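User: My collaborator sent over this chain with a note saying "see what the structure looks like." That's all I know about it. Can you take a look?
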Amino acid sequence: MSRFLPAALCLLSVSAGLPAASYRYLHTIAIGGEGGWDYISVDAPTHRLFVSHATKVFIVDTRTDQVTGEIADTPGVHGVAVDPRSGHLFTSNGREDRVSIVDGTTLQTLGKVATGPNPDTILFEPGHGEIYAFNGRGASITVIDAAAGTVTATLPLDGKPEFAIADKAAGRVYVNLEDKNEIAALDTARHAVAARWPIAPGEAATGLDFDAAHHRLFAGCDNHRLIVLDSTDGHFVADVPAGAGIDGVGFDPGTGLAFTANGQDGTVTVVHEDTPDKFTVVQTLVTEPYARTIAVDPVSHKLYLPTAKVEMKDEGGKTRRQIASGSFKVLVYELVP
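Assistant: Without extra context I'll predict from the sequence alone. Here is the result:
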């Protein structure tokens, strides 16, 4: 891994006629505590940022970028899904094979639902009012009725699920199958896999996002690529060069920009959607090493990336990485006006 770098930015290239999209460091949200982290997500209607961290989820007000609360008792939490009808929050607790149901106002846990092994990414499917918890080690999906808090289906997958995204208009959910180099398209009415699409030349995709207006899926791949597929039939659209150590991917429909969080490089690759079939890298934003997941606020257009200081510790002659106590934080970047 590279050494930690100062927050700065470097504009790589802007094609003629394109907007000079450029991001710069704004500030840091200090969180502290112990342990690792995974997904970070924005709920734009309520101006909340959800930051998963070890056994808690921290809530940040995106208007002030101040921590306003936390959800406790979420062992190995990966992500958060929001039911906008009830306001309830659902957390995927990877270390206890459960999903917590949380009151979105009081942040108190109302109950827990058993899932398959290691629930990882999680989302709310608006067409049927269901929560999809994607079980990493279980190679399956636990589908939960968001209103009743009960399991309605368990869907096996021939592959390890990573990030997923819902498409209400098409009645589908799309999920990366990391070990198969595919995206699976799920029929939400039948709770079944409707199609599987190769992402070649991409490999081991993790992050995924979606341009609903133009039916474009963005898959961030382990071999330094952002692969774009058509969500209607899965055909290949584009292969965009990106950085090393991609985990999270984001898309901002208001600016037409897609992002890959490159944790190994300590950068974000910023890609402009020139047309639905043409994509151009317009910036490499220097962040910090290990800043590997990302959230985009579609209202303010700010980027949020969690990271921490990682130290090398000797244990019995073996060296391993360890997160420095109290160093966890969220880096915030703004679009240059």
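A starting point for your reply to your collaborator: Residues 80 and 91 are 5 Å apart (CA to CA).
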